[in-house]
Every structure is written in structure tokens, then in C-alpha cells.
Amino acid sequence: MRIKKLDIDAFGHFTDRSFPELPTGLVLIHGENEAGKSTLFSLLKAMLYGFYPVADYPYRPWHVDRYPEFRASLVMDDGTEAGIHRKLTKMSVSGTFRHNDQIRELSNHDLPVVRHVPMELYDSLYALTQKNKRELEQRTRREIDDLLLGDLGSDVLRPAREVVEELESEGSSLWRPDKRGQPADKRLREALREAGKARKDAAKIDGEIREKARQLWALEKQIEDGKEKLGKINAKIRTGEKLIPLRRKLEQIAEWRRGVADMEAVKKLPDGLESEKKRIQGDLADAEESIRKLDGEKQKLNEDILRFSDEHRRVLSYKSKITNLALKISAHEKEQKDIEGLKLKAEKSESELQRLSGEILSSDWDEAFSDSLRSIVLPDLKTRIYEYERYRREAGDIESELKNTSDVFMMSPISGRVILAGGLTGLALLLPGLLFSYPVLSGAGIALCLLAVSGLVLNSHLRRQRESAKEKEKERKVKLQESLDGVKSRMKGTAGAIRDNFGAMPVAGSLLENPDMDLYQVVESMRRILGEVDVLREEAESRHEEWKKTHADFQALTSEFAEEPSSEGIGRIQQHLGDAEKAKDDFERARQRTSEIERDDYPKAKEKYAKAAEENEDLKAKLSDAAPGAPAFDDALNEAKKLQNTVRRIADAEEQLEENNPDLEELKAEIKEYERSEENIRLSLEEIEVAKIRLNDLNEKLADLREKRGNLKAELEQSRDQVSVGEPEGEIEALLEEQEAVRTKRDRLALLANILRKADRDFRDKHQPDVLKGAGKYLSGIAKKYKKLTTINDVEGRESLAVLDEKGTPLKVEFPLSGGTLDQIYLSFRLAVVDHLDGDQEHLPLLLDETLINWDDERMIQGAKILLEAARRRQIFFFTCHGWVAESLCKTTGSDVVKI
Amino acid sequence: MASLRLIHIADAHLDTPFYGREESLRRRLREACREAFKNAVDEAIDRDVHAVLIAGDLFDNDRLSFATEQFILVEMERMKEAGIRVLYATGNHDPGRANYRAHDLAWPENVHLFRSANPETVPLHDSGGQKIGYVTGAGHNSAKEGSNLAALYEPSSDELPHIGLLHAQVLSAAGAEAHERYAPCTVSDLVGKQYNYWALGHIHIRQRVGDDVPGWYAGNIQGRNPGETGPKGVLYVEIDRVSAPEPEFIPVAPVIWDKADVSVSRSISQLEPLVNRLVGDIKAQVALDDGLEHLIRVDLSGESPLAGELNRHDNLEDLCERVRTELDLAWLEIKPGALLPPVDVEKFRESRTVLAEIFEIMDRLPQDDELLEDICPMHIARSDVPDKKAYLRSLLEGLDRQAASLLVRDKPGTH
Questions:
Q1: What was the pLDDT predicted at A855?
Q2: Paired sense of beta strands B51-55 and A81-88, if any
Q3: Best label site of A838, B99, B213, B267, fewest CB within 10 Å?
Q4: Does the predicted interface ipTM exceed a cut of 0.85?
Q5: Nearest-CA distance from A675 to chain B in Å?
Q6: Model pLDDT for residues B107-121, shown as the tens digit of each residue
Q7: B397 to chain A: closest CA residue
Q8: Beta strands of B168-205 (E only): which ranges?
Q9: Which domains does chain B have, with CATH numbers?
């Protein structure tokens, strides 16, 4: 396959670049470093295999709007033509391959004609660069041998021998046929042994646990049996302990019963014999005392009856009068004092009347004036005095007016001289003012003149007014005098009327000539006092008459008892009355009480006495029945008391027994039954004590058994946490599974190692001869003294690459061979490898980068010739940045130089 | 007439030797089995059932531990105190022959043991002593009961509800192939008895065995391994002669096994994204918020550059721990077996490389005994395998991809 024409739309930094006529053999490309040699190689690779990796493809154009795209025209090895177009956009990859009139969609797949060489291999073997050479120089001899002989120089694959060693190492880490090391299988075997032991231990423990469980069950049975026996004995003891006191009590009661001869006679005895005896004897004494007291009382009552006398009866006949007057005596004595007070008050008022009469009368007061005073009409007197005083004030007023009529004020006229002086002054000012045109002077002159004229007019008016007033005054005086005379006349008449009012009373003349309200005031007071005196005297007289009548009654009563009619006398009479009333009450009460005693009290006391005596006899009889042998009453009583206590104890004991034992009858039957039961315990404290000792023994045995059971249970409880058989079995199962997996994995690795070993051997056998033969041929064309490439084995049987010199001596491809020789050998080897890889398939283009750079001139010429020879089978792209190399090769091979 | 109320329990497998290297996990699972059984008994008491039916495999084997025995007896006593009859038909794991545990245990009197292959019928009574139904059952006498026990059951002949109790393999049941063929029978064996309900045990998948027969497997009460996923429990059923029973599933298992499939793409080449993917996918596939403990097995698939790394035990453990911690899980197992290195095997098959040579050898090995003999390792670790060639050939599965992943250098642009 050869590329005839290449049109690059965009690829890396190539844009719209065209190589219209590329040489189909050796293509000499000259360009500076970074001119695009790598880019061009990647383009060739993309042409054959597609764009990889698509994501982040490194040769996307620098211009963002362009995508990697190119077209190429090819000539296939059979001379047919083909075309290829590939494009990588942002979203898709497209490609077409046209050959033999067929167009095939490539997408991003490789060309159908390049599939004998995987891309990785092409990448590794069809590009020979200085970098390859440097990397080769860094490898060990063994690696180089592996690389060249095992992989034909490709580093796409790791050397099979290296992988085999890893596989064997990993396999040994899993499993080894011998006992060396610590492979996983060995650890698993140990773990299995441990797990097996754990399983055995667990089974053993489980067996032990079961044995303990069986022991536990046996113990449980023993404990149950013991508990049952224990229960029976316990029950017997409990029953015994309950029945023994009961039986004792019953026996005691029977004993008591035997000590009482006649239970019924004792029961008939009253409770509290001693107190009963005392009560009966007390009743007898009480009855005798009652009769004695009644006799004494009756005698005393008789005395009260005899004490009520005839004098008591006479006093009681005046009882109502005494009571009535005793109530009035205090009021009667007070009335006498009040009457005397009224008389005294009337005398005081008469003294006041005399004192007042001295103010207005010309002589001392006389009783005879009383009627005149009583006859004065006080309202009339008051009116007259008011009237007289008014007339007197009117006469005063008229007299005063008459006196003032000549003093009437009138305004005097203005002096004529003043008016004249003013008029003249005004004219004196006006004329100069007018003459000399002084407005101030003329103004003042005019004003003064006007004032003078006004004064004249006013004076005239005042004079007329004065004359008229004098006439009127004269007329008024005449009228006033007439009025005064009239008033005085009426005053005189009124004074006479006032005097008439006083009648015979000698009122002082001065007071009557000029009467006023003071006079009236005195008269009025005298009239009021006189009235009061009249009332007081009348009342005192009236009450004195009444007093005298009542006093006669008092005198009549007190004289009967030879007493004064006074409070003291009346008091003593009342005392007599009280004594009489008390004597009467005592008399009546004594009579009534005496009657009651005879009727009620005497019979009751006697009856009580009789009853007590009867009870006493009855008690003696009962005691005699209950204690027949007792010689005396007190002995019988004491004996009876003892019997009574015994009977009471029996009753209490029986009651208590019944109360505490509702099933008493059953218990009594149980007591009888107890002795007959199969348990060998008699109903006695001694027997019960013996049974208790047996019980303790049994309890101790049970405690031992329980302790053992507790220990066993604890052990069994702990055993719950013991590893059960299943757990190590689960581990064993897992270990076995893991062991199987480990062993299988190891076998798989061993098998793979063997396959790799055989494949490596076969590969070498299959390809080495052809490659070595071709490489030797190329090499001899470059360096005449080396005829052939071959392999040699070292003492370990390891294969190494070697070259045969002219004498047929094998030389290992390593130092001391020169670097140039080694380069020639590698080039030869590489050319032979690609020839071999292509075989009879399409020969793919080869890329050489600065391959001949260190070669001497002659060898470079030979090398160029070899390349030319190789270019007969395939297209070779030779890149150099050295102009002289390009020129030399151009001259040697006749090929054109393509500049980039 | 009132319905007959029952709880149907099967395959409790108490004392199962649980798979796993971690002792704590094994112990937890053993406890979980007991908890599940205790929960079932609680349900029976709470629902005041007339009887509890145990359809075999109450415990896993005759090495039943003493503690578990005591546990079983305590639970039976609890039901006795609640007035619940227990009808227990033995299975292949807990056969009823003499000297076996089911036979020897001192069962309380409320427990009736069907331990013989000959079916017997037991009447059920309500609390008032009135007869309310029958249970016919038969048990596995030995650990390998091969006969069709269902065929021996007498048909129902009474008007009262009739229940069949049996540990058997109904051949057409889902998952039957995963179980040993003990007491095999067909659906028609069951149909002919005219029973109102068949309480079956043996197959651990809860299911009705056929549309024509009222027969149910309750499934086991606690998942025992990563294959027994999802909620596990018992069936509560009310039975009368008139209507078809509609069992209610009651979950009782405190620990749930779950499975998650996580596909990894080539783009995941670091541990952190892988952890995130695992956490996200597990959360999406498993309901973790139900308050129960979840034990999860994750199968990784797809192609990832991490395939080689995860082939190492310690790396895998690290990954497990990271995800387990992130999700707060009691247990997590990641199986990277289906995770492949991202190698284009076919690309090298036609190349002139040693890899192509390897592929050629591997292609020939399934048929070429001589070649197999040639490359056979001198020492086989699995010396126990009965057929060495078959074993070696079984190892070839995926070996080409492994070879490629080992040989092809991990260089940028090479994949």
C-alpha cells in the first residue's frame, strides 16, 4: 500500500495542506523540529486505523471551527487504486474506503487491508525513531533479547517469559507442591485443622453439656421427690403444731368442768356477787334512812302551820290599801314641794314687774294698776307711737327745707372787662398780621376776637335765667310753712290718743309728751310678766286643793297602825304586810307537803325496804344451791365467786376456740385422725421436735441438691455462649470453599503459565528464522563483514541475539559492537520484522525518523540503498531535520525531498 | 362456623452451619434463625391461631446443639401456654427415626410429631373444645426419604376444613432442581385429596405449587446463603370449607440476603469512582431503609482497567470495606469474577504476536488431549478432581482474556 496523494483539510496544526504527488517508494521529508513529523505519522496511523482515542483526540485542529479531516489516494500492492476519507467531528466519526469500485463505510474502524497488523503493533513496530533507540539502549540485555526475539521488537506486549514468572510466583503464593513458604493454601490447611479441632471441641462440649443436662434432669427428679417428702413432713409438723395447743385447751376445759358440781346453779348466780350483795344491803339501808327523813320533815312542817297568827290575818286585810298608798307616797310628797316652787316663782315675777314699772310710772307699782295694764291694746299703742314718730320726722324735714331755700346756687356772668380786653387784643394781633402777612399773628387775632363775641352772648343768657329762679323760690316757701303747721297739729292729736291707752296708770308726763318705741317696749314687757304671774298663781292654787284630798287618805291608814303619814310610816306598814304574807305561804306549803308525805312518800319507802329484804333472802337461797357445803353466808359467797370464775373461764375458752377454729368439730376429728395417720409422728411436742430434726436433714440434702442444680444450670447457661458444632462447620465449609478456590486459581495460573511458555516457544520457532534471515540479508547489504543474524544460548539455556562475522564467529548483539553497528543491526532487524509481519498481506507504510543520523558516509550510502531496496516492497517515510542528510539521501536514492 | 387460623412454618433449619469465614457473621446468622422462629411464634400468639404447622426441617441436622434444643422447647412451651397446638412433620434434615433428635426430644404435650411415613390424621379443636378441622401429616423417617408420601394420604371425607402437612418435593415447583429429590410428588397427588390447604416444606422459595391445588411452600424463615435473597417468613392462613384460602405472608427474618449486579464501564479506572458506582447501584437495587440487616453479594461485570487489581484479594477487601462502611452494612461480598480487563482479544487473534500463538493453543486445547497433556502443570493443586482433563479444560474459561490482560501493556491509546 502506498499513499499517492494526501489532502489535509485539518489535522493538528496542518490546515488545508495538500501533498498532491507523494513518492510511492522512499519519501524523504525534511522539516525543522516541531514542523509536524509526529503529526504526520499520527495522520498516517489515523488513516489506517481511525482516530484513537476519540475523546480528547490530540490532533484536533487549533482552529475551533475545524475538525480533523483528510483524504488520501492510495495504490495497493496489486496496483489497484483506492481512496480514503476520514473525519472526526464533535459528535461523530465518519470514514469511507473506496477500492475496486466499492465504497465501504469505515466509521472509525481500521481499513480491511491492515488487519494483519493491530494498531498497537503498527504503533510499536512501523515507526523507528531515535526515541526507540534510546529506550532500547536503556534496557538490559535480557530485555532486548525478549523484545527482539520474543516479540520481534514490539513493546506492545510484555515478554511472555516475564509474565510466566509472575504467574508462577503468584501460583506459588497460593499453593506449592512442597512444604516450603507460606502459600495461602498452607494457611487455609492450618485454619481447617483449627476449625476441625474447634468442631471436635464443640462436639465434645455439646456432649458434656448434654451429660450435664441429663444430670440436671436427674437432680430435678431427686429434688422433686425430696420436696414432696419434705412437704408431707412439713404438713404433718404444721398440723401437729396447730393441733397440740388445741388439744391442750380442750383437756383444760374438761378439767375445769369437773370442778363445778352444778353448772346450772352457778350460771343462775348473778354477775358480780359481791357487788350484788352490797347493792341489796345498800337498798335496805337506803329505805330505812328514807323513812327516818320523812318523819323529821313532817315535824318541821307542823311548826310552820302553827306559826301563822290572827295579827297576820288583820294586816293581810289592809293589803290592797297599803299596797296602793305605798305606791303613791313618793309622788304625794313631791307634789307638795312642786306647789311651793310655783308660789316662789310668781313672787319673783312680781318683783320684776315692779322694777319695770319704775321706768315709766311716776309712782310705785300698785296691784290696782294691774287691770289698766291688762286693758292696754298693745297693737294700737304701737301704731300710735309709729304714727307720732312719722309726724315728728315730717315736721323736721319741712323745717329743714324752709331753712335751706335762700342758699340756691346760680352761675355768675363773665366780666365785661375781660371780654373787652380779649376783643381788643385780638384786633391788635389781627391787624399787624394782615398788614405784615404774619399768618400766626392774624390767626391768633381772629381767635381772640371770636372768643370775645362768644363771651358777650353767654352773659346775656345767664342774666335772664337768674331772674326767673328768684320768683319760683318765694312761692315754694309759702307752701312749706303751710305744711308744717298741718303736721304739728296731727302730732298733738296722736299724743293724746296714746295717753288714753294707759288709763289709771300714772305714766310719766315726759314720756307721754314725746312718746317713742322705748315706751312701748317697757309696756309690752310688763304685760308679759303680769300674764306669767297670773298663770303661776292660778296653777299653785289648783294643785294644792288636790293634794289636800290625797293627804287625808294617808292620815286615815297610818292612824290604824299608829304611824305618821310619811314614807317612813308607810314603809314600816309594808314590812308588817311582808311578814304576814310569808307566814301565810309557809302555812300553806307545810299543809300540802304533809299531805304528800302521808299519801306518797311513806308507802314508797316502805315498799323499797320490803323489796330489798326479799332480794337478800333470794341471794342467800341461790348461794346455798351453788355452794351447798358453805357454813356461812360469806363463805358461801366466796365459794360461789370461785365457781363463777371457773364457769366463765370455761365459757371464754370455748368461745375463743370456736372463734379461732370455725372448723372446731373437724379439728377435733382431725386430732383423733392424726394419731391414726401413716406418718410416724405422734401428736406430742417431743415427736414434733424429732420430726423437725428429720425435716432439717431433708432440707440440707435438698439444699445440696439445689446447689448442685444451680451449679449445673450456671454451667449450662454459660454453655449457651459456647461455640456450637455448627459454627466451626460453617467455617470449615467456607474454608474448604476458599481452599478449592485458591487451588483452582493456582491451577489456572499454572496452566496459563504453561500455555504462555509453549506459545512463546512456538512463536520463536515460527518467526525467528524468517526474521533473522531477512535481517541478515539487510545487514550484509549495509555492513559487508556481517553475513548473518542468529541466536545463541547461554549456559542457562537462555537465548540471545547474535551476529556472525566473516569467519562465522557468533557475536552477541551488544557491546563491544559499536553503536553504529548496533544501529545497523536494529534497522535490519526492524525491516525484516515488518516484512515478516506483512508477509503476503498488504505492505504497510514504514516511518523512519533520523534513522541514519549517526552513520558514517559509506554506511549511510549503503543504508540509503537498503532503504531504497525496502521501498520497492513498501512506502517508506524518512523524516530528517538535517538538510545535508536530506540532500545526501536525495543524491543517493534519486528521490525528491518533500519539505514541511 | 369460624375459620381455622393457622401459621405455616417450614425449613427453619435452626443450627445451620452458616457459610462464611467471619465468626461474628456466622453467629449472627445462627441467632437470626432463632429470632425468625421466635418472631413466628410471637405472630402465632398475637394472632391467636388454633395451630402452628411445621412442615419439616425445623433444624438443620442431627448435631443440633443443646442450646438450640432448649430454645425450641421453650418456644413450644410458649405456644402451649397460649393454647396453640403445634403439628410438626419431620423432614430430611430432621428425620423422625429413633435415636434422632426430633424423636428423642421431650416435646411438650401441645406438640404432635408426624415422624412416620404412614400418614395420620389429627383433629383440631377450638378453645371451647369443639372440633374445627383436621390435619393429616406424615414425616420423613430417615434422611433420605425417597417414596411419594403424598400419595399415601387419605382423601378428605369430612365437612370440616382439612389440611395436609408434608415435607416433600413437588417436582414442578420453582427451584425444585436446587433441592434433593426427597418425598417427591406431583401436583396431581395433592389435588386428589380434596384438602383445603397443603402446608408444604422443603423448597425454600415461597410459592403456590399450582393453580389447581391449594398448596403452598412457605419458604424458609431466614435466608441462609447469598442465593436465598429477599424477605423470608411464614404464612398465616384462615381456612374454611367454603372459600379458597389466601395465605398472608408474614416476614419474620431479621437478616436479609440481597444480590446486586453492578456493571462497570471502561471509563471507571480509579477506586473512588468504582466505590461511588457500587454505592449508587446497591442503593438503587436494594431497599436498605426497612430497618432490617442486609447482607449483600455484589456481582461485578463489564470491562474495567481495575479488573486485574480487583483480582487481588487485599484490593478486593479494601473495596468491600469502603463500600460496606459507606452503606453501613453488616456484610458485603463483592464478586469480581465477571469483571473483565478491557482487552480486545479478537484484535490480536490474527496478529503475528505471541498472543495470537496463545489464543491458538487455547483454541486447540478443548479438543487436543495431547496438547493438554503437554501443557498440563506437573503438579495439580486440585488433586481431588475425578477427571483431570475435564478439570483443566474447565480452567480455560476466560483464560484468553486473562492472558491478554497480563501480556498487553497498559499504554495510553492501546485499548
A1: 78
A2: unpaired
A3: B99
A4: no
A5: 42
A6: 999 999 999 999 999
A7: A748
A8: 169-170, 184-185, 197-201
A9: 4-251 (3.60.21.10), 255-340 (no CATH), 345-407 (no CATH)
